[in-house]
Amino acid sequence: MNNFILVSLLLVGVAVADPWHVSLHTLVEGGGAWTNITEFVHDLSSTGFDEVTKSVCGHGVWLMYSNKDYARSSWPFADSWTEEFVAPEYKCHSLPSTRHNQMSSVRYVGSGVFGDEVLTLYSGQEYTGGEDVFIRNDDNFGVFSNTTDSLIVVGESPWTVYSNNYYQGPSICLTPSPVYSSNGDIGLYYGSWEMAELSVPNNAIASIKKGCNSEKVFTYGRN
């Protein structure tokens, strides 16, 4: 009996901490040749899969980029793109035809496992550039204050961002929305925002606190 209980607990632990993965495919709907991705890949040429992807399959929350190094570029240097893949269970997703054979880097969001409540701040628009990952409060960003261009929340908890250190100044509560599995259950919570749409002047984020502690609330998909 004790052995059965131990095995059961181990299996539950594996399910909760199931690492996210995604496979890249050379044809739509998960067809053709493929490669499996379980970690950040800043240059897909290292896997032999640079600029050949037409679809992806997997689960979790992933960001896919047309540029190497999760970078962003705009006209006249080229119009880059970022594709968000949000899947609480295994599924396949075909990229728009205008993005076929262009993907050059890919990374997951947050911790890369289900169940964690994580806020990720990105230094570039469209979730590009460097990232800072938070699982708890931070009252002083120091030299990294006011460097956020976009952000993503994964997990049920909302987060409050403040314009000044020590949870002072104008604030915004960012609340993720549920993403449902095929059986109707909530598979994960997700929310992504550009700083421009939040109307935060000068990208002013200097401290963050877990939970909703502001009268100004943005709920993903609603406002």
Overall CATH architecture of the largest domain: Sandwich
User: Secondary-structure element sequence?
Assistant: HEEEEEEEEEEEEHEE
What portion of residues is helical?
under 10%
Judging from the principal axes of the Cα atoms, what is the shape? globular
Helix count, DSSP H or I runs of 4 or more residues: 2
Q: Which stretches are poorly predicted, pLDDT < 50 over at least 5 residues? A: 1-16
What is the straight-line distance between the termini? Answer: 52 Å
Overall tally of structural domains: 2
CATH overall fold name of the largest domain: Gamma-B Crystallin, domain 1
CATH class of the largest domain: Mainly Beta
3D architecture notes:
It is globular and about 50 Å long. β6 and β7 form a beta hairpin. The protein contains 2 helices and 14 strands, in the order αββββββββββββαββ. It has 2 domains: 89 residues, Sandwich (Gamma-B Crystallin, domain 1), CATH 2.60.20.10; 102 residues, Crystallins (Gamma-B Crystallin, domain 1), CATH 2.60.20. The longest helix has 15 residues. The protein has 223 residues and is mostly beta strands. Strands 1, 2, 3, 4 and 5 form a 5-stranded antiparallel β-sheet that branches. Strands 7-6-8-12-11 form a 5-stranded antiparallel β-sheet.
Short description:
The protein is mainly beta and 223 residues long. 9% of the residues lie in helices and 38% in strands.
Strand and helix layout:
Blueprint: H1 2-16, E1 21-25, E2 34-37, E3 55-65, E4 82-94, E5 105-108, E6 118-122, E7 131-134, E8 150-154, E9 159-164, E10 168-175, E11 177-180, E12 186-194, H2 195-198, E13 207-210, E14 217-219
Parallel strand pairs: 10-14
Antiparallel strand pairs: 1-2, 1-3, 3-4, 3-5, 6-7, 6-8, 8-12, 9-10, 9-13, 11-12
